[in-house]
Amino acid sequence: MRTKHILYKPNGVCSKMIDVTADENDVIQQIFFVGGCNGNLQGISQLAKGQRIDDVIDRLTGIRCGTKQTSCPDQLSDALRELKHAPLEG
Q1: What pLDDT score was predicted for residue 90?
Q2: Residue 40 phi/psi, 5° resolution?
């Protein structure tokens, strides 16, 4: 099966990088966060794994962290928007 993959640099949050891969059917295969709240981000990653990109974008867009205008889940939704347009590999 062919996949698409990106490394996304989030803005305005504690995590420094989001590494995300989806298959040719836009189903999320894996997500890794670098930095941020490790346990929470592992949980989000596991919940999103196996889900369709658009479904996860719909659920996570607009989530805020405290007084920040964004959050790690919101930044993941931005990364997934970018991933949708990434070229297929393999």
Answers
A1: 83
A2: -65, -40
